[in-house]
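Handoff note, outgoing to incoming analyst
You'll be picking up this chain. Sequence as last confirmed:
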Amino acid sequence: MSPEQSRPPSMTPLPREGEDALHGEKMVVNMGPSHPSTHGVLRLVLTLDGEVVTAVQPHVGYLHRGMEKIAEGMTYHQFIPYTDRLDYLAPLSNNVAYVLAVEKLIGVTVPPRAQVIRVLCCEIARISAHLLWLGTGAFDLGAATVFFHTFRERETLYNIIESLTGSRMTTSYTRVGGLARDLPEGWAGQVAAFVAGFPKFLDEIDSLLTGNRIWMKRTQGIGRISARDAVDLSLTGPNLRGSGVAYDLRKAEPYSGYENYDFEVPIGSEGDAYDRYLVRLEEMRQSTRILEQALKALPDGPICIDDPKVVLPKKERVLTSMEALIEQFMIVTQGFPAPRGEIYHAIEAPKGELGFYIRSEGEKSPYRLHIRSPSFINLQAIEKMAVGGLVSDLIAVIASLDPVMGEVDR
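Most recent structure output, in case you need it:
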């Protein structure tokens, strides 16, 4: 067997012709699926000219679980825990996105207290997800100190989440028509204490990274994408705003009362990895502002709609009332039918526009359910961002996109 025949397929050089032969052979190599450089089970097939990337082909599907098909055999309530496993770094946000879509389908609006608590959940999820992005993204490029600082703050947030939901990661807190339970005693104080100290932490990160020469050289001009290309590729979230497009669903199509909050939408100018870093850093500041306003605006009152066909009765009623026992039995075993029709509803999740399309035929389960996951859409930009750069810059490009493979593959 010749050396050419024995070469592994993934390392087979591509033939050169004419003047290109002076530069040597192009090489096709696999990058991933591995952690942490490709952020989970993402495989990239690279064509390299030395260390220069000339082509990138993403391969996904290694984590595919068929969630959208699973939803067709479940009641609307039963699918809520599956949304935790999409962007598993922001499960509270995923819960809200899904139940808002179902509530739009069945035509209900939750009470004001539930809306404010949902806003608190979404902004806590945004800060937590951005902190993990910042810590792991900095670690990818060699800034290990930042990683430890960000995970210290995330630990505080996970304690807050655990106090609210009983779980640190798979929360399943939101319900169709309201919430699983009201705020525990002292929880608002926990959030207020975090909000009071968090801006100082952001200032610390700002001083560590923003003017750091090594960080700037590794991110400025890297993974640049224009506003037109970002729009053409359907990018959303910080990746779109980093290119200078001020599109945020909390402003463009407000939900859960976001129109009542005062906050800014940060945007970049160059569309590079450095701008996407600055946008997410400022987004955490704005989320802190929203949390502060939400705590002040938190009203008293019910956390669920008054509809025994949709919302489970309180446990004490179930133990003492036959009617309540029947109501619980029907919801748990049969669910509730939704009107015939189709809807789409989306929220501004940490990664971008997270949307749910639901088609109903009047049954207890959706006839079709499709998830518009931002990480999946944003991955389209890898080739546009990476071609012409170095392999080492590709690490920065992937990190700046902040993909989570749980919602890429679904």
